[in-house]
Amino acid sequence: MENNDVLTDSVKKLYKSVSEGLGTMMVPKSLRPVIDSEAKLISNAEEVDIGWLLTEENQTGISIEETMELCKRAGSRLLYQEVKKQKNIEDVIAGAANILEETPTVSKDPVDPDWMTRFFNSVQDVGNLEMQKLWSKLLAGEVRRPSSYSLRTLDILSKLSSEEAKLFAEICKYIVEYRGTAALLNDEDINKNYNLNYEKILRLDECGLIDSNGIMSLTLKVAPGIPFEAIYGNYLIHGESSSEQSINLPIYKLTTPGRELYNIVSYELDVDYLHEVEKTICNQNSGISFSEHSIVSKNNDGTVQYVRQGRVLNDYNTNHENSIVSQE
């Protein structure tokens, strides 16, 4: 990104949003200002106004010479801290720019300047590379579509340790979306098989990412024209019924911040886990016809486009790997 003329519209919007949160000096990395010139302001103790300190000499017992040395060290410490903060901020911005380079179009709606200010106040102390990647994804997502991430989510992420972020990514690997509700199925046998113990869920509850209430359940109506749909990564579990029925699922639901962060966390799908969930849902709802389909694309409103030809799921006692169904 040496030349501003070749920046994509999405990256240009990023830097415009950044400038409103940090000032116009925050431009592409190749044009970043040199901090050395500002460092000169505190490199010489004679240039520091220490008059207010010297008036307290008799009370503090600190000599003029020692006060000047303290000013030098304080200035050096503050500069060092601010340089680290600046580097953290610019690393996150650079990461977001790299992501947005792959996004040719973004919403024309501006990013809230107050949101940007809160964002950089939060990210300035983040030096962990993996955590910086999360912040970069979050910034890119907000530029792509403003109001995607709440201030509460910024607050929660700022308090999240790298260990807690890894634990959340582990849980996200087993999250299924049911008509907009993202949740972990509360099934003791399945969760035990995948080492999803309650202590992990409780810890993420303390982080504000998931609701550990063990009696929470989700009830979904299934009727003619109202199918059951559950999304796991690029897979869709589709269910149809010729009469009105209800599917009741015990769940641990992601909170709103948890759901927002779930969209940017990196994790690998476990198809074996998907089959376990499918088997459980099918066995508990024998009056509904279920099938599994590959998702082609996901829309912003939560709907999906999927391959109409799918795999029959209802009979797990037979070899259903070759059984297919086609949705009209």
Task: Provide an overview of this structure.
- There is one protein chain.
- The protein is α+β, with helices and mostly antiparallel strands and 328 residues long.
- The protein is built from 13 helices and 10 strands.
- Strands 1, 2, 3, 4, 5, 6, 7, 8, 9 and 10 form a 10-stranded antiparallel beta sheet that branches.
- Helix 1 (9-22) crosses helix 6 (113-123), helix 5 (64-100) packs across helix 7 (129-144) and helix 9 crosses helix 11.
- The longest helix has 37 residues, at 64-100.
- The two termini are 48 Å apart.
Give the class from helix and strand content and strand pairing.
alpha+beta
The rounded distance between the terminal residues' Cα atoms is 48 Å
The run of helices and strands is HHHHHHHHHEEHHEEEEHHEEEE
Low-confidence stretches: 27-48, 317-322
Domain count: the total is 2
Main pleated-sheet profile? 10 strands, antiparallel
How many DSSP-defined strands? 10
Percent range of helical residues: 40-55%
Strand content: 15-25%
Radius of gyration: 27 Å
What's this entry about, in short?
With 328 residues, the chain is of the alpha+beta class. 45% of the residues lie in helices and 16% in strands.
Features:
2 domains, 10-stranded antiparallel sheet, 328 residues, 16% strand, alpha+beta, single chain, 10 strands
Topology of helices and strands:
Elements: H1 9-22, H2 36-43, H3 51-54, H4 57-60, H5 64-100, H6 113-123, H7 129-144, H8 151-158, H9 162-172, E1 176-178, E2 181-185, H10 188-193, H11 198-206, E3 217-222, E4 228-232, E5 235-240, E6 245-253, H12 256-262, H13 271-284, E7 289-298, E8 304-306, E9 309-312, E10 324-326
Helix pairs in contact: 1-5, 1-6, 1-7, 5-7, 6-8, 8-12, 9-11
